[in-house]
Amino acid sequence: MNQVNQVHNVQYKIVGMDCPGCARTIETVLKKLKGVHAVDVQFASEKLSLAYSPDQIFPAEIEKRVLQRPSSSPVKRERGRTQLRR
Prior knowledge:
Elements lengths: L7 E7 L5 H12 L4 E7 L4 E6 L6 H9 L7 E4 L2 E4 L2
Parallel strand pairs: 1-5
Antiparallel strand pairs: 1-3, 2-3, 4-5
């Protein structure tokens, strides 16, 4: 099967956002990345859902961009899920 143009959907938990503005900022940053097709950050549930093309961007780059925001903190992996913790 050809993986070019394949879209992956993933969810992250972001712990430590201080306000809904943090969620909007993270959304704005991620939407600008080549290979990211859809982004939804929910402040109340601390969830980040996104669709991306793995042939254009790697999950590590997405995580790096989220972690550059002052409202986020180091990545911690638990049971195969990535959590962005404060």
